[in-house]
Design goal:
Number of strands: 5
Helix content: 25-40%
Radius of gyration: 14 Å
Number of domains: 1
Oligomer: single chain
Bound molecules: zinc ion
Largest sheet: 3 strands, antiparallel
Strand content: 5-15%
Length: 94
């Protein structure tokens, strides 16, 4: 039986350019409500991958208007220009 965690690792291995959590949910046919669950799996996945000699890189969320980079994962609004056009954090295997 495949676990969700194993499925996410497989996807990240296949998409070396990186994926955001919304894309992971779409590719795995998960309801958008499960994004939070995927984020928590990614933390565990980072540890699993490290043991296998890989690194999970997190490219931080970015404001599409002014380019501001956030230092946290889930954001809705840019503190600098107040834009809500935010590019979600991406995860990629190094
Ligand atoms: Zn901004």
């Amino acid at each position: 039986m495949r676990t969700l965690r194993a499925e996410i690792i497989r996807l990240l291995m296949e998409h070396r350019e990186g994926l955001n959590v919304r894309e992971i949910c779409q590719l795995l046919d998960l309801e958008p409500e499960r994004e939070r669950e995927v984020y928590s799996h990614l933390k565990a996945i980072a540890r699993i991958l490290r043991r296998k000699g890989f690194r999970l890189l997190m490219l931080p969320p970015r404001c599409k208007e002014c380019g501001f980079e956030f230092n946290k994962l889930r954001v809705s609004k840019c503190p600098k220009c107040k834009s809500e056009r935010i590019e979600a954090a991406r995860f990629k295997i190094d």
